[in-house]
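Each letter names a residue; structure tokens follow underneath. Both lines appear below:
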Amino acid sequence: MAIENEIKFIMTKYDELETLLSSVYGWEDINQAYFDSNNRIRKSSFKNGREEHVFAFKQRLPNGRTVEIESDISESEFDDLWEFTSERLSKRRCSVFCKKEDRKTEEWLNVHRWDIDFPRWPSGNKYFAVAEVEMLSDMERPKHILSVLKPYVIHEVPRNDNRFSAKKLSDEKHARKLAKELKLWD
């Protein structure tokens, strides 16, 4: 079981950012689907052809942290479960990992990993990307935003704002509404 301490940032210039990050850090394509607000399955397909299948329980806690429990499942279990899910989301993820020895620089201080998701909505529209940073348990926010990401950040998502959860973003109408609120879409 892991207690996660993470916050999200909304990113602009979807195509430019995706091209930049995927060329430097690599990527994985994710198909994720929900049984309810807490239980989901996820298939990750990596650039090298490797695949992972996971069942996950995820619950936001009153203190703003999140408990997430994941268990590997087989491809056939994933396929069998898929038909029983509702909200579904496809996305490309670029992850920037920080090794302990790299944390000497100010940018990396106390930060474990940044995940930047590029949702693939059914219409093909690209409203925005979502960056999520995992931090040490005592941090409220990262001391710095990575320099490669800084020019693209347009909104820091408050901890109690669940409008940008992956489950909610699986609804393209909801994503379009958020993009309009952020003045990213007409």
User: Anything to note?
Assistant: Residues 2-36+87-181 form one domain. The mean pLDDT is 89.
